[in-house]
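job 3f2a | input accepted
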Amino acid sequence: MTYWPVKALFCVLLFLPVMVWAEVCAEDEKGAQVCLPEPAKRIVTLSPGATELMFAAGAGDKVVAVVNYSDYPPAALKLPLVGNHTRIDLEALLAFKPDLVVTWVTGNPPAQVELLQELGVPLFSIEPRTFEGVSSVIERLSTLAGTEQEGYVEAAHFRAGIKAISEQYRGAEPIPVFYQVWEQPLMTINNDHLIGKVLQLCGGVNVFGDMSRLVPRISAEVVLEANPHAILTGSVDGKSDGQLDLWKNYSGLKAVARDNLFFVPASPISRPTPRLLEATELICEKLDVARER
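job 3f2a | predicted structure (293 res):
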């Protein structure tokens, strides 16, 4: 009478440890294989981009602390802070007892990241620099958080969106573009930067694309010499904030003569997250306007 129920209970007990304690592994941007005994439940993100990516991966409810400027999605604004990406409050971070900390390869202080590693805190380093890299990191983060179903759907949506834009602008007329990262000192990006890849996808020709540094400092003189047909920069909400006023003094500059000084929302274009898709669509539209003029 009790044989089958006991056998069934035995089977459940036999397989329960496997289901609960299944190890999860993923390779980070530094090439390190990161393995956790089970999907992460307490995650700390050390850059605003990492925060967005964890939510995109379907693991927003597992994020227990973030750094300053983690303002998207809105739910991230309610999370406790552990400093900013350049200066981490290690005591506050450790108090959250994270089972995973997502770091930014070139943005977080190396000494503090090394100390976390020495303390045995599981670290996963990210810094996607390609469109595929954005999708891939969402998938890998979802693996570590046990949210593959949500993460892989979001990654596929991003891939499909980028592919559609690529096909739409495959034959677009090339147009010389200057992207201004910062006004003082004057800074731009090269073609290896993700923003540079956005410009290329839209048919833009980055006038400083061949420079060796990812984010080089330049002078106003070299911009005038390059004479771009369009100048873009990021600002809060994509509204004019005076950052491009300098160029209005040079009426001979084609971008000025044709009124092609454009602003786009800074966060979506500067963070390697799914919102990069909407930023790319907007930049493509701006360059279409420049072509018409």
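job 3f2a | The chain has a mean pLDDT of 93.
job 3f2a | closed
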